[in-house]
Amino acid sequence: LGVSEQPVRTLGTVKTAQEIGRIELALADGRRIRLDQVATVTDTVAERRSAALLNGKPVVGFEVARSRGESEVTVGAAVRRALEDLKAQHPDIELTQAFDFVTPVEEEYQGSLHLLYEGAILAVLVVWLFLRDWRATFVSAVALPMSVIPAFVGMYLLGFSINVVTLLALSLVIGILVDDAIVEVENIVRHLRMGKTPYQAAMEAADEIGLAVIATTFTLIAVFLPTAFMSGVAGKFFKQFGWTASLAVFASLVVARVLTPMMAAYMLKPIVTGHQDPSWMKVYMRAVTWCMKHRLTTVVLSIAFFFGSIALIPLL
Questions:
Q1: What is the pLDDT of residues 230-244, one digit of tens each?
Q2: What is the pLDDT of residue 196?
Q3: Residue 101: strand, helix, or coil
Q4: How far is CA 1 from CA 22, 38, 39, 44, 151, in A?
Q5: Residue 206: in which H helix or E strand, if any?
Q6: What pLDDT, on the 0 to 100 scale, is given for residue 10?
Q7: What is the mean pLDDT of the chain?
Q8: What confidence tens digit (pLDDT) does each residue in 274-289 have?
Q9: What are the contacts of 73-78 at 24+ separation with CB within 8 A?
Q10: Which residues fall within 8 angstroms of residue 199, CB to CB, at 6 or more apart?
């Protein structure tokens, strides 16, 4: 129409401009015409629409993008192999990588895995520090992998991949996954100190705090799960975040209510010696005693600490 352009896509089987002119076009009324009947087809140099420069010199630039559903890391590795083969076949061609979006993804992925490992190790160390029993620590620590594995299964069924968002969710809840198991084990140990057998202590302790453990877990799910239903662009990311965190927390509840008491019943030993508090417990009890005797002062200091924290927000 003089000032408009209409792109035409065809298979790369033509070799000359005349062959392009002989391509037939289908009209709306069913008739077919040849392209050279309604247009002038010439073989010439196209108008420059874009240019690629590297260090001020013109180059031939190209970009490789992954298709929908493919992994950036997998595509990036395949492209690197293809470029190495191209360099080997054509050593006279100099290939320069101008930008790379895959390496930051790999670095974030490795960083998320390191956070996950560090969080798991620190959680187990803290449990051992306070429980001071390797059997009780092992029973509690088993909740970590046994909660993460069902989360991976749920991610697979929901079509989620292992990416920065899902790993971030697991990194945030990795310490929470042992909470229910710690509560169960601590209460079982308390019953063991009463002279009960491990089996009896596990059954009675698990039944005693079952409702509290369930309420705690579903409170956490009520915090994380609504983020999975956010709208907009942010909702696309938080959907995987919310579901992954909720699945892991729910799996930790199942482990704490089923696996932890069973393992405690058969792994923990009867306690025949008297209980001795660690040295730091004496300091803690003195602080608690002071707070109980100075209740008004404790409340005033707590309120001052709260408003002081709010006042520091502008400095973040």
A1: 888 878 778 888 899
A2: 84
A3: coil
A4: 21, 11, 11, 21, 59
A5: helix 198-224
A6: 67
A7: 83
A8: 666 777 788 889 999 9
A9: 73/102, 73/105, 73/106, 73/109, 75/102, 76/100, 76/102, 76/103, 76/106
A10: 265, 266
Q: Which helix (H) or strand (E) holds 299?
A: helix 295-311
Alpha-carbon gap, residue 250 to 227, rounded angstroms: 16
Q: How high is the pLDDT of residue 300?
A: 95
Q: What pairing do the DSSP bridges indicate for beta strands 32-34 and 57-58?
A: unpaired
Report the helix count and the strand count for the chain, using DSSP H and E. 13, 4
Q: What is the DSSP string of 215-273?
A: HHHHHHHHHHGGGGG--HHHHHHHHHHHHHHHHHHHHHHHIIIIIHHHHHHHHS----S
Q: For 66-86, how does the pLDDT look when each residue is reduced to its tens digit (9 = 90+)?
A: 777 777 778 888 888 888 888
**177-196 pLDDT tens trace:** 878 888 888 888 888 888 88
Ordered DSSP codes for 156-201 = HHHT--S-HHHHHHHHHHTTGGGHHHHHHHHHHHHHHTTT--HHHH
Token pair of 66, please? 């992954």
